[in-house]
User: What shape does this take?
Amino acid sequence: MGPVPPRTRRRGLPSTPARTVRKLGEIRRAQLITTYGVGAMIAVENESFLIRGIDSWDVSDAPSISEPRLARQLGVSTFRMPPAPEPGRARDGVRAVRFPEMYSCPQCHQLQYFRKFNSPAGRAECSTCQERLVPSRFVIACERGHLEDFPYWKWVHRGSRTEAGSCGGRLTFRADGSTASLRSVLIGCSCGVQEVSLEGSFRRQALRELGIRCGGRRPWLKDAPAEDCQEPPRTLQRGSSSVWFPVMYSALSIPPWSQGIAKLVAPYYDVFRNESSAAIETFVRMQKLLRHHPNYTAADVVAEVERRRAAEVSTAEPAAEATSIEPPRNYRREIYEGEYRSLCKPHVEDAEVEQDFVCEPPAAPIDALRSPWGLTQVMLVKRLREVRVLQSFRRVEEPSAADSPLREAAISLAEPSWLPAFEVSGEGVFVRLDPERLNAWEQERHQIARAELIRANHERLLSARAGDSGKPLPPSPATPRFLLLHALAHILINEWSLDGGYPAASLRERIYGEKDMAGVLIYTATSDSAGSLGGVVAQGEPDRLEASLRSALQRASWCSNDPLCMEAGASGADSLNLAACHACLLLPETSCENNNILLDRAALIGTPDGGIPGFFRL
Assistant: This one.
């Protein structure tokens, strides 16, 4: 990360000295989507920086990623991997800005803006004490994503009507070490005001009571004007997870987009999008794009480009005709329905065609899985590709499907035509439940009553998150079918992490539980050595799957927190679980696409007294 230097030589002009570029640090490309994306803070030695918007990135050499279905849903033309320049190159591609701006010296205890310390170039140290400076531990943010330094001057001069800094004094910051609480963090001023601790600064109304309002600042966007904001700011620790929640979307590459001519055209579609058929054919011949693909012609390339154009138009027209009173589009369902249909059909590997998606049934029959387990189909996904995209981010409260558009913190000042993304190649196992048995089970009144408890709490949360935006609330997916499929995915991931040697964090779920869908895909979530070695596919062989399913259900039949876990009327964050806790069902955050909510172990094995039957029979 760092600034991009200007060109130092122009034709006909003498050279000028090159400006020294400070290299701040290195992070992996995937981390710029998942952990340190736009608007997130990153610590580099004893300094802290904020990742700037994508409109300041240098993506001239960044590879593009094609996933037409997801691009159309998100309203962009393409995706790009975060830039990763070769070693030795001057530019970095991704820029950062110093934040927080307030620093303190551990020796003289001065607390002031970094620039006032007059630190040597490229170093963060006090010019008086030669001690390393410490960035402010505290910031303030609001639910609309705005971010500012903690107002130390207003906090210590509480009750004063003068403007910040008008007392002429200098702020001090020290921790007396008497306790580990905020009571021992003391802020003072040389003007003589009494030192004040930061105790109570994290209360919801603490800043509002002092007349401190949100300034509408977006320091991650260059030259962004301050917005008018009425949301109350909250005090947060700089390293808290509440400072930055990514809003990510993902899609699996499925036929026809994942193979053949579609895969070949994908990297060049941005070039072809607005060109005529003749120009496309000329480009194909001049660049010799088909020299390794004798089965295709330039006419096939033109036909594929036309098909993509038609798909873009068909998606854009309904969006243009939409009105504010229509229910929101369920992007997840639209993406998942196509994946579900592809997973249910065999896609055999073909050596003559480049494929990102290979899905085959096991060679052995699955009769032993039909009864008593109720599985009607097992597919071995020997090859898959997933694209994950950063669309925006949230602060203070984690993202929700009912979030007001005002909560969407932008990752660029202008409407972006592309979004940062990365791709994962791996493998997985898809299982589908017997629809007849599932339909009968989910109509049982006790199952409906348990799901309704979670559904009511979830809809109450969605309503609170939506506020007064007037946006129609999305339906809660909390149905008996979804709770069952979700719990099944969790126990299989836990079991395979023990039996197959995979860390649970390297496995990921995908729940297909809406409408008439009734399947679960468990696949590798990383592209390292755990990504595609065949270990997950091996777990889908009928004999091994039966053994692991039996073992997983036996483990789920008793939790170390029982009977409290099984008898709980509500559990988990915002009471969005029933019988589910860290000892039985919960997974690492990277594995669960639903943030460990909407879970009920009783849907699998029923209650111990038999009053509520589970879907599976041990």
Q: What stands out?
A: Residues 290 and 296 are 7 Å apart (CA to CA). DSSP finds 17 helices and 20 strands in the chain.
